[in-house]
Every structure is written in C-alpha cells, then in structure tokens.
Specification:
Blueprint: H1 2-26, H2 35-59, E1 70-71, H3 92-120, E2 130-131, E3 138-139, H4 141-171, H5 178-182, H6 186-189, E4 197-198, H7 208-214, H8 221-240, H9 249-270, H10 276-297, H11 307-318, H12 330-342
Antiparallel strand pairs: 1-4, 2-3
Protein name: Phospholipid phosphatase-related protein type 5
Transmembrane segments: 6-23, 39-57, 93-117, 150-170, 223-241, 248-267, 279-301
Membrane topology: Multi-pass membrane protein
C-alpha cells in the first residue's frame, strides 16, 4: 500500500510537470506582461497545484492508505465508538468555518483600520506600492496587503491539509475505537494469544468506509488546522496592532485563541477519536507551517522596504573597502624598545 501511495504522488508530480511544459510552450515567444506579472502568474500556478493536490488527497482514492496490523484484543484500539464526526463537541463544519472565516474577517478589519489611520495621519505617501502592469499602474496598499496576507493564509491551510493527509496515508495509524468498527472475528483469525499479530484488510468485517476513516488518524487534522489558524492569527494581531492600551489586550486575545486550539485537540482525545501522539503531531505540523509562513514569507506582516532604501543598501554593499594606514604609537615604540633591552 505504501508503494501505491508513492506511485500516486509521483504521478501527480508528472502531471504538474506536463502542465508546466504546456504553460512554457504557450508563452514561448515571451510573456505578455513584465517580470512582476510573471511572479504573480507563478504564484497562481503554485496555488492551483496546492489546491489540486489537497483535492486529490481529500476526495479521491489516488493515494492508497497503508493497512496497519494490530494485536489480538489490543487495549489501545478497544475504546467505544464515539459516533460520527457530526456528533463531536467540535464538529468539522464548525471547525472549518471558524478556521476559514475568523482570520479572514480579522485581517480585513485590521488592514482597513491600519489604512484609515495612515490616511488620517497623512502617511499615505510613505506606504508601500506594488507595480502591476506598467510604470503607471499601482495596486492600492490596502488591497495589496490584504490579498497578500489572506493568500498566504489560504496557502498555509491547504499546505497543512496536504501534510496531514500525507502523514495519514503513509502511516495508516489506527484510531482508539478501531476494533469497535473493524469487528474482527477472533475465532476465525485464530486469536489464541494476545501477542498474535493480525495483518490484512480482510480481517475486518465492519463498514469499509468507517474502517478506512479509522485508519487515518496520525496526525490529527483538527489539531493541525486549529493551531495553524490560531498561531497565524495571534502573530498577525501581535505584529499589526500597535494601538495604545493593548499591552494586555493583545496577549489575552492571543492566549485565548491558542487555548481554543489546544482544547480542540484535547477534545479529540477525550472523545476517543485520536491518540495523544496524533494530537501532538498535529499541533507540531500546524504551528510549524504558521511560524514559517509568518517569519519567512510575510516578514512578520511588515511592509516591503521602499525602493530608495534598497538602492541605498545596495550602494553601501558595493562600496570598496578603505584601507587606513597604521600609525605607530610612541608608547608602543617605547614598549618594544624596553622589551628588546630586557631580552
């Protein structure tokens, strides 16, 4: 099964390579837009590929799940079945709606407030501008920053989903309630001892769809998505909100978001839907992707430096080093003479 998953991933990469070749042939004579436009087009292609890969993981059988075995009467997988995901205290619809809606709303409101404050303080001329199609066409700073931050956040959501699905497909880790859904016939399987290991998908006699979902728990998708959204939003609030009187308001709001994310993971364990290891791995995936995107991609939500600052720094870097001749101190000369007399 693991080889089938790798073959599926390789096949998807080949499809992306063919799309890239067709895209290059279509613009063989040159791109009809400047270099800035080329960068935007490349980002759109990457985003489309990410969304496509997430779709293949979620809604198709392109990547086969690894079938992991289990021991007879293994206590780690004998928890009661908690019911469908819709009966959870944090159902998927609520989690996905909050993860997709709350950061979008907060970023739009925050960027609008920052833009209005800059307009009120007449700091509009110092705002960053991005060249789009020519020397005279610019995107409004409010639109540019909002689209940039929301686009990176959306990319991170799909990337988190891809990382989680890839881990679930490759590992095939079993849920705590797996045996309640698998319903193995221990007599037919010859389970005379607890140490006997059972392999093969034919060992289960329950609902195949529920069994397949019970084989995809590591890492926890709910834990990863919730902590990714909370970390991204908390870092946005910390780096963007600079108003007076928010020294305690910002930490309280950020800690509240992180607490809700951690409670989501704890709820998964309490309802016997995931192991502790699944939740911790999901937390690691979510927070790692969020921190990487914020620090390395959007530069802690700071604006780009103006062009004159870049040119000034480049000129300083290109300046030749000036060698200053060494002047011998009279004290140093007397010290050397005295040392020679002693020796």
């Amino acid at each position: 099964m693991l080889s089938h998953s790798l073959v599926g991933i390789i096949h998807f990469c080949c499809v992306l390579f063919q799309l890239r070749r067709r895209f290059s042939k279509a613009f063989k004579g040159g791109f009809p837009f400047p270099k800035k436009g080329r960068g935007i087009s490349l980002e759109m292609v990457i985003m489309a590929g990410t969304v496509m890969l997430a779709y293949y993981f979620e809604y198709t059988d392109t990547f086969a799940v690894n079938v992991q075995g289990f021991f007879c009467y293994e206590s780690a997988y004998r928890k009661p079945y908690p019911g469908p995901e819709e009966r959870s205290a944090v159902p998927p619809v609520l989690l996905y709606s909050l993860a997709a809606g709350v950061p979008v709303l907060v970023i739009i409101v925050g960027e609008t407030a920052v833009f209005c404050l800059q307009m009120a303080t007449r700091d509009f001329e110092n705002q960053e501008k991005t060249l789009l199609t020519g020397d005279c066409c610019y995107i409004n700073p409010l639109v540019r920053r909002t689209v940039r931050f929301l686009g990176i956040y959306a990319f991170g959501l799909f990337a988190t989903d891809i990382f989680v699905n890839a881990g679930q497909v490759v590992t095939g880790n079993l849920a705590p309630h797996f045996l309640a859904l698998c319903k193995p016939n221990y007599t037919a399987l010859g389970c005379q001892q607890f140490t006997q290991f059972i392999t093969g998908a034919e060992a289960c006699s329950g609902n195949p769809d529920l069994i397949m979902k019970a084989r995809k728990t590591f890492p926890s998708k709910e834990a990863a998505l919730s902590l990714y959204a909370a970390t991204y939003l908390a870092m946005y609030i910390t780096n963007t909100v600079k108003a007076r009187g928010t020294r305690l308001a910002k930490p309280v709001l950020c800690f509240s978001l992180m607490c809700l994310a951690f409670l989501t993971g704890i709820n998964r364990v309490a309802e016997y839907r995931n192991h502790w290891s699944d939740v911790i791995a999901g937390f690691v995936v979510g927070i790692s992707i969020a921190v990487f995107l914020v620090v390395c991609v959007v530069n802690n939500f700071r604006g780009r430096q103006p062009e004159h600052e870049h040119s000034h720094m480049d000129n300083l870097a290109q300046m030749p080093m000036i060698s200053i001749p060494r002047v011998e101190s009279p004290l140093e000369k007397n010290h050397i003479t005295a040392f020679a007399e002693v020796t």
